[in-house]
Amino acid sequence: MLQYFLILFSGGIIHKRTRPPQVPAKLLNSSTDYINDIEKPACHESRANFSELQEALSLVYQQYRKFGYTQFNEHGLRISGYELLPSSTVFIDTAEDGVCGTVTLIEDSIAGLPADGEFADELNALRAKGRKVAEASMFACEDEAQAGSNAALIGALFNACTGNRIDDLILVVNPKHVAFWHKVLGFDVLANERVCGRICDAPGILLHLDIAEIVAGRKKLNSFASRLLLQSRFGEGSTVKRYNATAKDVLELLKHCSTAGVSIAPVKVLRALSVLYEAESRSVSRFIDKFLFEGQSGPGALI
Q1: How far is it, in rounded angstroms, from Cα 274 to Cα 288?
Q2: Which of 28, 46, 200, 215 has its CA 20 to 30 A from that of 76?
Q3: Helix, strand, coil percent values for the chain (each to nearest 5)
Q4: Residue 244 region, left (φ>0) first, then alpha (ψ -120 to 50), else beta?
Q5: Reduced to 3 states, what is the DSSP secondary structure of residue 82?
Q6: Do the Cβ atoms of 173 and 194 come closer than 8 Å?
Q7: Pairing state of beta strands 240-243 and 202-210?
Q8: DSSP string for 96-133
C-alpha cells in the first residue's frame, strides 16, 4: 500500500493564530516509565553530512514545487528553520546516485512546532497534559524510490520517537492522504481541514499518533503497521542516515540564504536558534541578531 503514499507536508506558519503555543519553559522527559523497559533497537545508523542535508532540502523543494506547496527561489532549497534546531533530526535516505528521500522529526522546544501556525489550540491541549510532543515534517521522496524509501523513513521516525521518549507524534497532511495514515498506520484525526498558509494555502488536516499507548501495548496496530513501526531497525545495511545540526552548519546555511537574498525562517525560529546555539557559538547568535536588527526577516518570512 505504500505506493499510494505521495508526500507529507507540514502546515506551520505564523499568521492569524488565536493564541500562541504554550510550550513549557523547561521541557521534561515524559513522566511515564514504560519507555525505560522497552528493548532498544540495534542501531548501526550513519550520520549524514552537510552536503547530504543540502541535497535533502533540495529534494523537498523540488517535490513541494511540483505539488504547488512552495514558491520559487533561486537557490532551490526548502528551509523552515526548524530542521536546524538542536532538538530536530533530519532523516535522509540515500541511494547510489544520492539522496532519494527525507523527513524531519521536530521535537517541541522554545520555538514551538510548525503546526502551531494553524493548530496551536490542539497542540496546547497536549502540552497542558505534560505530554512530550514531536512533529514529522518536510517528508519527500524521489518518485521512483517512493515505496522503499517511505517505509525506511517511517520506520526511522518511529524508532526515534521511542528512543527519545516522545508521547505524541503529530503531522499535517493533505486531505487526500488521510486514508493512508489512518487505515495503514493508525493515525487519528486531531483537527479537521484548515488552510495552511506556509504551503501556499493548501488544505491540511492534523493527524496524531499516540506513541506512548503503542509502546505500552494499549493501542493495537494492524500487522502491517506493527511490522513497519515496531520491528524497524537501523541495520548495518540501512540506507537511512540521520543529520543533527551543528552551529557551524547553521551559520553556513543562514549566511548562504541571506547572501542569496532569500528569507530564511520565521522570526520566532531565528530567535530560538540564537538562544539555543549561544553557548556553542556566539557567531550564530551575533549573525541572527544582526540579521533581525537590520529587518531582513519578518513574522511570515519563510522560504
Answers
A1: 6
A2: 46
A3: 40, 20, 40
A4: beta
A5: helix
A6: no
A7: unpaired
A8: TTEEEEEEEEEE--TT--TTHHHHHHHHHHHHHTT--E
Edge-to-edge strands, sheet with 240-243? 46-47, 240-243, 88-95, 98-107, 133-141, 168-173, 202-210, 188-196
pLDDT in tens, 115-154: 999 999 999 999 999 999 999 999 999 876 566 678 889 9
Do the beta carbons of residue 249 and residue 266 sit within 8 Å?
Answer: no
Handedness of CA 33, 208, 239, 99 (dihedral sign): negative
Determine the average pLDDT of the residues in 169-173.
Answer: 97
Four-residue CA torsion sign, 123, 128, 129, 132: positive
CA 22, CA 19: separation in Å to the nearest integer?
A: 8
Contact 61, 200 (CB under 8 A): no
Tens digits of per-residue pLDDT, 23-49? 444 333 333 333 333 333 444 468 999
Contact (Cβ atoms closer than 8 angstroms) between residue 23 and residue 127: yes
- Interatomic CA distance for residues 79 and 264, integer angstroms: 7
Q: What predicted TM-score, i.e. pTM, was given to this entire model?
A: 0.82
Contacts of 34 (CB under 8 A, 6+ apart): 212, 215, 216
Helices first, then strands: H and E counts in the chain: 10, 8
Rounded to an integer, what distance in angstroms lies between the CA atom of residue 161 and that of residue 158? 5
User: How many angstroms separate the CA atoms of 84 and 272, rounded?
Assistant: 10
Enumerate domains of the chain plus CATH numbers: 2-246 (3.40.630.30)
Distances, alpha carbon 71 to alpha carbons 26, 64, 74, in Å: 36, 9, 10
Burial class (CB within 10 angstroms; exposed 0-12, middle 13-18, buried 19+) of 37: exposed
